[in-house]
């Protein structure tokens, strides 16, 4: 039984709601409110097996095959419950405060499992009527009663186990908060170093617990919120170190104190949000999230309008008008923005006006159909529905275009990080006047980026991406003033190495968020264009069943703290390379170019491997990582073929540089493929293999980061010389050309 969690705490709710006992007939087992994958994997098969027993057909003649099948299901249920109870009892022994409740639930589950096994026993099923024995055939209500008791007790065990996991996370959070309070009050470097070492260990433990929880959540919205909070904590840990050291070195510096307090405040908010998600609660009964976004409003409005085809009398005209008014009210965020172009603003206003007119006409035709007591929609009403939906779709498209084009321009404009570079230089020079001038420029940049995030949220297309936009907006809003206070501190103490290091850390966080925005923008465009529903993931992971014959090979190996720290360090380098490659592929005018597509694919796979180093993402086990590494190496090999085809179209003078990079790439791809396929046994050997896979992936990505700009340069040169673009043959075409 997996004891990783649901999304709520003890008294309020859990991985399954406490009302999860299935009411009435068990065929409707969907009444279970399952919130986590681990609980789902435990309960759903059990519900399915029990439903099979209860829904069997009562035939007068029962073959031996039927009787044996029923017995097998009954025995399978009993054995599964036995294993489940063993785990539950072990958990009870380790947690005294829940031992009594857990033991009672385990006893009930065991008794119910044995009852089901007895009722489905072949010895009893053969001729039950003759000796008056009660079986599944003579009294189905007994099976239903046992099944209800079984699911009720199993659910209770899961709720209690989940409560323990939640308690672990809360306890871990409390330890982190207590140590943070000590760190805030220290007055000597020696004391700070000792406490920070303890703090680092506590943060690693908290990261592991919350990472497991995040991966277990079924709700993508909660997952995204958890990921955002954990990202804040990860980045703030380094900020807390440098900001605290700066404050200790310069205790009388007001800007250093403000800088440090900002970090502690943000970490506390992030810790609080994690607990809100884990316990499924909000302080003071607040609502879950921010105001409605336009994409959500349009989606709901269209559903209502199109619903008229099914039911002419369900929605009210006032309801539709209110929904449209709310959407148009939010479009003012675009029309009032100083960064929206004149053309986009005029088009948005025009489409808003047209949407109102189309809805008014729709309501008129609709009311007419109601007055005539029509049962089906008329042709006029169908046309009005189509026109209203078409108009609102055009408005949605215009808003998307306005937000994404503005974002693309802003990200391109700020890509050189000139303001940050100048702040660092003027800070080291101790030039307070210049620092003041460039902090004003950074504040302007911050306002632009915050506005960009706000508009992107409206067109994000999915709730997880919307939450990512909110997180980005918050990051720019908070990090901007922190960079300013760090720069002011450096300007006041220009010879201070720690003050310089502190400013570097905050600037890196800003640059990292800008890089993440490029990826986010691509995700939003992809969702809008229907290329994918969520984040792009190039995976081909093994699935349970026919491909998993060797279960021992798939057994995940948990890394210890030292190993995790080493892998995490490697992962950071991989993350930086994926950001670098994403920015390089975006420069290509032709995004469908084969080289670009392979580059994007490999970058996305490398990013999923980076997430593995943080205990996040879809790669859950070491086996998943090895399989992903193998697919990555295959993709890189395909890229090599495309690069060779490209080199054949180049002038002789241009070929050597590209061929040199190709020759560097080929052996590393082969090594990675061999490493990923090699079978290993034991924890140490598995860690060495993980380390090798990530290191070799990093080498491939490093070479790729050099190949992409080289190909871009050669392609532009070729275009300038020939006056027409180079064509890249597809994989099949390459093979046919070789055959010729």
UniProtKB/TrEMBL annotation:
Keyword Glycosyltransferase carried by entry: no
Region annotated Disordered sits at: 1-25
What Pfam families does this protein map onto? Vinculin (PF01044)
Record-linked Gene3D superfamilies = Alpha-catenin/vinculin-like
GO: which molecular function terms? Answer: actin filament binding; cadherin binding
Q: What is its main location?
A: cytoplasm
What is the name listed in the Swiss-Prot or TrEMBL entry for this protein?
Alpha-catulin
Organism listed in the record: Crocodylus porosus
Q: Which gene encodes it?
A: CTNNAL1
